[in-house]
Write a structure and sequence with these properties.
By secondary structure, the chain is of the alpha/beta class. About 40% of the residues lie in helices and about 15% in strands. The relative contact order is 0.12.
Length: about 325
Amino acid sequence: MNEYTAVPRPIEPPSALAPHWNWNRAIPQPGHMGVDFEGRVDFRRMHAYRLERARRALASSKLGALLTFDVNNIRYLTSTKIGEWERDKLCRFALLAGDKEPVLWDFGSAAVHHRLYCDWLPAENFRAGMLGMRGTVPPSAGLMKRHAEEIKDLLVQAGVADMPLGVDLIEPGMWLELERVGLKIVDGQQFMLDAREIKNIDEIVLLNQAAAMVDAAYHMIWEELKPGVRENDIVARANKLLYELGSDDVEAINAISGERCNPHPHNFTDRLVRPGDQAFFDILHSFVGYRTCYYRTFNVGRATPAQHDAYKKCR
């Protein structure tokens, strides 16, 4: 380990995180809606847990702050989300400095929305900001320079400006501007990954709910999979079902059948399914930010003797 390796302090045992939960019981899959007659997902408890995990990762390091552009890390720190189109833009960013509350820079209208509806953070911590959306606005426009100076000022206020700043993902232009204001930039991604590694009961329930939605999609696929159906037909129907069930992002559905199964191409086409085919599917979707990579292989009609032999060998 180097001097910037994250070593989060031990977190409380599960009983302290959900004192009324019996960990010998099956993990619930309670549905989407909160009710007054059952304790279901407690989002405020989950937010506090995630922020504490990040704080401990930061406190156990030699970093003064974490600056995140990865939308998954931003959501982990701030419990905010905008449209899925944000995923590859590197346009939103959040700062966790010392023992201060996280600060989020978002599109102006989104920042106003957060101030109205996200009362778990101070309203003034939601700021309008935009860097360049990966070249749409060039660094010469000065947006990166202005935000670098703003971040430096916040680090000075937190008393950590002379300590390294951990960053997960960043545009080169923004990296250079942060260095120009005198900040030492180091790799901070592993700190966030280490913090996110251990889930609390609320996160586990959301993962279970996400998997239950994929169970429904696979039952639909089992019913629909027959000769003459195309791979893309299955992908379209699975997308429709998952969004109807409440998915907030169907990232990808791999649908691969017949001779396309080997080598595995990780995509789908308009190939017609035929009798005796193997058909492989992988469903990647998100429910309240918790994602699946849940895959199954089916046979169309029946399994061949060669498939039986291969299954026995693998098992």
